[in-house]
Amino acid sequence: MKVNDFQDLYIAELSELRSVEAQMADHLGALATQATNTSLADAITAHRNATENHRDRIDTLLQGHGATAGDSHDDASMHAILAETDKWAEMIDDSNLRDAGLIASLQRMEHYEIAVLGTLASWASKLGYDHDATVLSGILEDDKVCDARLTQIAQNGIDTKLH
Fold it and tell me: Over its length of 163 residues, how does the chain's per-residue pLDDT go in tens digits?
């Protein structure tokens, strides 16, 4: 996709975000099976369901701009975070320690999403795409809630077992 103006940049980044959401949705199911803490496994499963919904909502936004999901693909950022997550999960035998590592990796994913969503919501507002800004801000809030839930699980159920 050729980027010639701010609108093109917005659409390219939105398409990349859609790719990120799709990669995460595909990967979160496997991560849920690696978690041994029930609250963590449930949180990952819930996040997968939310991520699938986010992916579909972004598809709708892209379609509204005459773009498709395949116009731009994230081959680096989320791909690297997911590969790092797999590496940690395979390296750690202790279940509590692996759960702590999973939370750290999941929060990296969330923080990446939060950064991109905040930027895109702001850009959508600047471009006058009020509906897009509302949708993206809603997804952003969902991801902040997920991040907070992961922190709570770590503090109350996992980190306490590692001392």
Answer: 688 999 999 999 999 999 999 999 999 999 999 999 999 999 999 999 999 999 999 999 999 999 987 656 666 688 889 888 888 788 888 888 899 999 999 999 999 999 999 999 999 999 999 999 999 999 999 999 999 999 999 988 775 555 5
Tokens of 3: 């980027």
User: 52 Cβ partners below 8 Å, 6+ apart?
Assistant: 25
Task: Report yes or no on whether pTM surpasses 0.85.
Answer: yes
- How many distinct structural domains can be found in the chain? 1
Query: Is residue 102 a contact partner of residue 47, using CB atoms and an 8 Å limit?
Result: no
Spatial contact of 75 and 122, defined as CB atoms under 8 Å apart: no
In a domain, 92, yes or no: yes
Task: Tell me, yes or no, whether 154 lies in a domain.
Answer: yes
Residue 1, in any domain of the structure: no
Q: What domain range is 155 assigned to? A: 6-66+74-161
Question: 53: domain CATH number?
Answer: 1.20.1260.10
Closest C-alpha to 11, from 58, 47, 56, 51: 58
